[in-house]
DNA sequence: CCCCATTTCCGTAGGCCATACGGAAACAAT
DNA sequence: ATTGTTTCCGTATGGCCTACGGAAATGGGG
């Protein structure tokens, strides 16, 4: 399915929800059975367990023991709920400003990666028109402050920021993709690749792919760790090299 | 919606489709009204125009003037169709091995980016358990050959490969997200941000976000180009710095 | 105590989706 | 013309989001 995202909903309403500005206390009328926080928490729980595809309004309502349509009293729609979910889990990053600028950027990357690990459905949430809530904004401030401390020119800071942000979210997403698929399809990555052994037997052409063959013969793929370990170390390696490049470009 | 992907379908069947190994000519029986190629082409056309979310089996069948269920004679299911679509558009890259290893990696990045530009729905296709077809494999061979020429150790080549691949696909995905959203929601990125002017007026806290405020005041965000231009130059910048880092790490 | 404005709850229904099943239709060989 | 084989596709099931409108709960005023 396509990436989930907030749409044309009233920005003012969505922002008020993101920053938890209650519309104002209601002196009369029926008492709410559920709150926005409860809805978001339940939605996150469902998505954590069964993926974003399983996070339907009906499923969340069931989780809370209320009717499906009751949710729409508190939340404009599914897209806005996903925005709330994303900003909420981004707040879990708990960023502590310690060390030099490089340490802080790596800290940011690690914390963000941890969010994706804990909430694999974040892979399916687009971040180009992000939820402008505290979770996202605090993160932006943190990286920008770190990059600004590096000595880059202001204009360069913004360019480097987009590059770092893209790398972190992209790498975290692909790192998490595998476990998300394992969870939703019930098949592990290793098992998936194992079932495709046929490919190497019946389709791989040594003459068409000399570089891959050479690397294979050189033992480049004789790794002990699991697939997940390989991806993780590549994540660290890539960020390191990216920061090396940024640092080197300043001189 | 969650990322679309091929599932537990019979790998042998899917591989045969990807590499276009026809099951064997049928001497008797009713003549097919449509071919696999026609189905894939129609599906790509629909997804290009209306996004992967609109690419339903019914929609594709309608496009071809056949019944929905007829498609299932030629393709096991929707997941496998998406695999075929992805591998097909990846074949459009037309990679020419010219220049040094850096030029070739950048060439690969540019061609891959072009695929995402032409087919924004690729953002929604997971690449951790990729379609093992010619489109993907030829690309892998190309980058691996380039990286192997850089002088890195074989083990290092594979690590760098994952980092580069992650960056390229991640950056291309985020670069394309905006236009995909513009296409499916009918609202441009600039219009979207404009509607969120309220945020800066009512929610942005100068004291909470000093680094952002300082950058703003320093004119770091006074760019002439569009949002898309900014993202593109950050893409180039990021890849450059990543390759700088990889190159520097060899010495 | 009753009434009523106000607010929340939620059943129904419409219009999408993927795909299992099984029969109808087309075709080649006999 | 019959038969075997293959493709085509109508129907049905069970899911999804959410517009609509009425039922139920609540607190205040008479």
TrEMBL record, chains A, B:
DNA-binding span(s): 56-75
Domain HTH tetR-type: start-end pairs: 33-93
UniProt entry keywords in alphabetical sequence: DNA-binding, Transcription, Transcription regulation
Keyword Ribosomal protein: no
Protein name as catalogued: TetR family transcriptional regulator
Organism: Lentzea cavernae
Upper lineage: Bacteria, Bacillati, Actinomycetota, Actinomycetes, Pseudonocardiales
């Amino acid at each position: 399915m396509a990436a989930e995202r907030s749409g044309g909903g009233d920005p003012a309403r969505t922002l008020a929800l993101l920053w938890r500005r209650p519309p104002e206390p209601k002196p009369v009328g029926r008492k709410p059975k559920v709150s926005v926080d409860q809805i978001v928490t339940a939605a996150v729980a469902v998505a954590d367990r069964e993926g974003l595809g399983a996070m339907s309004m009906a499923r969340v309502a069931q989780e809370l023991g209320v009717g499906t349509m009751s949710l729409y009293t508190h939340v404009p729609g599914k897209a806005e709920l996903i925005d709330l979910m994303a900003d909420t889990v981004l707040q879990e990053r708990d960023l502590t400003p310690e060390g030099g600028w490089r340490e802080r950027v790596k800290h940011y990357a690690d914390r963000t990666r941890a969010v994706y690990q804990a909430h694999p459905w974040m892979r399916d949430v687009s971040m180009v028109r992000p939820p402008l809530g505290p979770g996202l904004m605090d993160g932006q401030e943190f990286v920008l402050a770190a990059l600004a401390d590096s000595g880059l020119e202001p204009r360069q800071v913004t360019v480097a920021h987009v590059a770092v942000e893209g790398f972190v979210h992209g790498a975290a997403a692909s790192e998490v993709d595998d476990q998300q698929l394992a969870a939703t399809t019930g098949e592990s990555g290793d098992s998936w690749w194992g079932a495709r052994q046929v490919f190497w037997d019946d389709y791989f052409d040594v003459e068409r792919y000399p570089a891959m063959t050479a690397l294979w013969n050189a033992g480049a793929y004789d790794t002990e760790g699991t697939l997940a370990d390989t991806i993780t170390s590549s994540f660290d390696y890539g960020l390191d090299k990216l920061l090396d490049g940024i640092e080197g470009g300043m001189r």
